[in-house]
Amino acid sequence: MATELKEQIINTSLFLFEKHGFHGVSVNQIVKASGTSKGGFYHHFQSKDELLFVIHDYFISYVLTNAEKAIVSSTYPTDKLQKIIKSFVTVFDLYKAHISVFYQESTYLKPKYEETIKQKRQTYRDIIFAVIQEGIDLGEFRPEISVSIIGMSIIGMINWSYKWYKKDGEKSIEEIADMYVDFILQSLLTEKAKQNPEFQSYFLHNRLPTGT
Question: What residue stretches are annotated with the HTH tetR-type domain (predicted)?
Fold first, then answer.
């Protein structure tokens, strides 16, 4: 019940922040719109600032946790990167409102909360960079690429999805994720690695019906 109330407060605040902005919404408005009490609000959040932090933290923690799982559950760097990309893209469907508020209101994060978010984002970047470097070291990824440039390009390209992705769009989030995986791995993998049977399912042309 307590978890349901917390989610209700978060979802209500997401709607209000998107519509009126962080400073255009008071705790009283959130309490009233979510059908709770001030006591209920402050049981879950110390302040409106902490609520904004939690909204930011939800999706960052999601992608970070899934990236960490990918590292321990896969042997090949290609498999690790595929899982990281898929979970990264999926977040734009699961937490679309959270991400919209993040880009709209992130400048209002208090320093202590901003530092926590920065650390998690840096950890996420480090994981992606490490996977790319591992792929180069093991001969799966092209050796001439720059780890930092390619890593930041992947992050930037996928991040931009929040600008155009629509739940009722032409492609599902799963189809979009598969396209990103194909596009990125086609660019990264060596010609030899592209022939590895373990990776064939990641390429869209291998999924076409026979005779197409």
Answer: 3-63
- pLDDT per residue over 11-50, tens digit each? 999 999 988 888 899 999 999 999 989 999 999 999 999 9
Measure the CA–CA gap between 122 and 155, rounded to whole angstroms.
12
DSSP string, 25-85: --HHHHHHHHT--HHHHHHH-SSHHHHHHHHHHHHHHHHHHHHHHHHHH-SSHHHHHHHHH
Interior angle at CA 133, CA 80 and CA 143, nearest 5: 115
61-105: per-residue pLDDT in tens?
999 999 999 999 999 999 999 999 999 999 999 988 888 888 888
* Count of CB atoms situated within 10 Å of the CB of 42: 13
